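ok so for the tutorial part 2 we go from a plain amino acid sequence to predicted structure tokens. step 1 is just haveing the sequence, like this:
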Amino acid sequence: MPKRFVDTEIWNEDWFLSLPGEYMLLVKFIFEHCDHAGIWRPNYIKFKKLTGFNVELNGFLQKINEDEERFEILKNNNWFIKGFIQFQYFDKIKKFDLILSNSLHKAIYASLNKNGVSEGAVRGLRGVLETSKDKDKDKDIIFIVNYLNEKIKSNYKEDTKKTRDLIKARLNKFTVKDFKTVIDKKADEWQGTEWEKYLRPETLFGNKFEGYLNQKIIKKAKSIIDQMHDDLKRRRERDDRERVQ
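step 2 — the prediction. this is what the tokens look like for a chain of 245 residues:
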């Protein structure tokens, strides 16, 4: 059995302390007998033989997941510990990536796929990258989404799959500076108009991205109020010149 980190802080957790003794023991048993990805193939007979406890598994699951889903039953009847990977390999990191060029990450991902675990079920998992070079792309994605949010006062998330996929596809050919140019051009053109609703990732970073990048800078037509202000300013300047003469 492989060695692994043990969460000593679990003894300070209310959810754990509220469990009956046999449930506590089963939690520890599962943590220590799951595979490297947090997948446990239920072996209740072994647990009962080693401990002498007779635990009803449905009642156990209901109690464990009472305030937060910690264990998930998979379609193949194996169990998945949702926070296992984050704790074992990415402690103190809220969001992490699995990089498939890393042999350990590749083995973890293979186990997840084999057992039908979706990426969304893995607590803290932001994405699966082919190589460490994609890590740099990830930093660019965060910067681009934050830049868009600051520019148009929005709150788009950098970990939304559709947004990430759109930006990744363009980063194969374009630069971060190109993204800033597109955001600036379309924000200046569309803000305050009926087109403002299209200032969103799926529009800006979609198939028309290159067209937006190369378009001429379009100045927004002035509103009637702005035109009235300009007319009034011109009249005042004209009156001031006439008085001087």
